[in-house]
C-alpha cells in the first residue's frame, strides 16, 4: 500500500508535476510502468525529479486522464495528443482518440468522392510462366519419390484475353493468395480484382504490397519472385481520359475503363504484359476511320516504351488487334492523338505520325523542339531556334512525292529565344474564318508574348500583340483562354495570371491586361523518380479554355493528399485525400460527356491513381460550384505552414532532433537539392509563397 501511494515528482519539458505511483501505473504495460520498474533508464534533474523530454502541455492532459479517466479535447490537437498517448503506451486512451478520429474522418471520402475503381488483374509475365512451370515440374519429380503424394502441376497460362480471371487463378494459386473477387459493381464481369489492401496499411503502401508479394523468407524462386516487375506494376503511373473512357498505365500493362449511363464506370480491357516499362500512353475514343469506312465502335490505344510505340485497335466486344509497333529512333517524350492520327514527339527534334486512313507511319527530323500545343486539327511546335511551326493534321499530313511531313513556319521570335511553352486559343470565330487565331508563348529568358492573326492581318502572318517580362526563370507553362492569360516558370512552378480584355470576341488592349495573381505550385520531386512520374503528376493548368482552369498540387512525392487551386487567383478549390490512405502516384483531370438523359451536362472529375493500383474519382464540378457560392473551403491557396510541415514530416529519414529536414533530405537523396533549399527556407521562416 505504501508503494502505491508513493509520490512521484516529474519534470516534463521543464514543467514540474507531482502525482502518485498508483495514478501512473493503473494502466498496465506503459512507458510509466517500465520507467518506474527500472526496465528503461531515466534521467533526473537537480532536484531529483524524473526528467521526461516531452511536451508539458500535452502531458498535463494525459496526466489528468490518468487521474480522472476523463479527457478534455477542447484546447488540444487530436492528432498531437494521440501521438503523445502512443509514445506513453496508453492503449485505452489511444483507442478512445482513434474512435474520435474515425467519427470525424470521412473514411468513405468527402462529399466530393465520386467512386472507386479497383485495380485490374495484372497479366502474368512470360518469365513468370516459365518459372512457374519449372517449379511445378520440380515439385512433381520430388513428390514421385514419396508414395501417396499428390502434386498438381500448374496449367500452362493461356494467351491474354478479356476473360483474365483464368490468368488470375493461375497466378493467385501459386502465390497462395485469396481467390479473385468481382469488382463489386455492375458491368465489371469482364475481369476480377485482387484486394491489395493490407490491415496495417501505411503511407508507403507500395512497400507493403511488395512485402505481400514477396516469397517467404525473402529468398528467390518462390511465390512471385519469378515475375519480373510484378510489384512495380501495382502503382498507377499515368492516367489519361478521352470522352467517356479512361486508361490507366502501370509499369508493364494498361487497363481501360468505360462509363455507361446505366452501369457507371467498369473495366473494359486489360493489355497483355509489356516487357519494357511503359513511359507514355494515349487513347482515342472517338470515331476512327478504318480503311474507307468510319467505325464508331473502334477505339485506339497507344503506348510508348523508350523509342518504341505500340498501337492497338480495341473493338466494342473487348477484343484487341495489333495495328503495329513503330520506332521513333529517340525516346518518346509526348504521345497523343490529333483526330485519328497518333503523334509521337521528342525534344531531340523528331516527330512520328501514324495516319488512320493510310495506316502509314512516318518519322521525320524537324529540328529541336522545346514545346508544343494542339488546337483543333493543328499541331503547333515551338523550337529552340525561336521559331513556331505548325502541321495541319486535317489535311493529308504526308506529301506523296517525297514522303515528307507538311511542316510550315508560322512565326519567328525577334529575340531568337527558345520557345519553351506555347498555347493556342481558337476564338469562337475561328470556325467561320480560319485565319482568326491567338497564340501565347513563353521563352527560356522568362518572357511571355502574345501574337495574333486576325482578318486585319491577313497576308502578314501573326503580329506581336503583347509582351510580359515578369519571370526570372524559363517559362514552362502558358495558357491563353477567353478571360485569362496564365504562365508558370521553372522556379517552383511560379504562376502569374492576367486578365484578358476582349472586344467583340477579339483580344484588345483597351483597357489592357491586368495582373491578377502571383503564387507558387510547389511540388517537391524525388531524385530517383521514373520518367513517367512527371507525366502522371503534371500540376496543370487543367480545364477547357472557356471554363475555370485549375492547378493540382502534390506537395511531396509520398502523399495521400492533393490540393486543387484556381488558376485565376491561386485560391484553394478543395483538397482530396485518399479514402484508404494509399499513396497517390498519378492524377489527371478529365471532363466526361453528359449522359443521354434530359438536362444532363458534362462534369469534370479529378481521377487519382494509387500505389495499390486502384483509381479514385472526385467531383470537381461540385467543388467549383461550392467555391463560387463561398461554402468551401476555409483555407486559401496552397498548404499552410502547419500543413506543409506535416507533409514534409515523412521525408525525414532520421529521428536526430539536431539535424534539419533540409539537410536530411539533401544528404539522403530523397529530394532534389532545389527542393531541400525550399525546405530550409520554410524552416527559417522565409516567404515561400505557397
Please tag this protein with its features:
single chain, alpha+beta, Potassium Channel Kv1.1, Chain A, Methylamine Dehydrogenase, Chain H, 4-stranded mixed beta sheet, 4-stranded antiparallel beta sheet, 13 helices, 41 strands, elongated, disordered C terminus
Given helix and strand content, the structural type is alpha+beta
CATH class of the domain at 366-523: Mainly Beta
Counted by DSSP, the helix tally is 13
Remind me, CATH topology of the domain at 366-523?
Methylamine Dehydrogenase, Chain H
Which regions contain 5 or more consecutive residues with pLDDT less than 50? 143-233, 652-669, 682-690
Q: Helicity, in percent?
A: 10-25%
Q: State the CATH superfamily name of the domain at 366-523.
A: YVTN repeat-like/Quinoprotein amine dehydrogenase
Strand content: 25-35%
Ends: how far apart? 59 Å
Q: Strand count, sense and closure of the main sheet? A: 4 strands, mixed
Number of strands: 41
Strand order of the largest sheet: 2-1-4-3
Radius of gyration: 30 Å
Q: Rough shape?
A: elongated
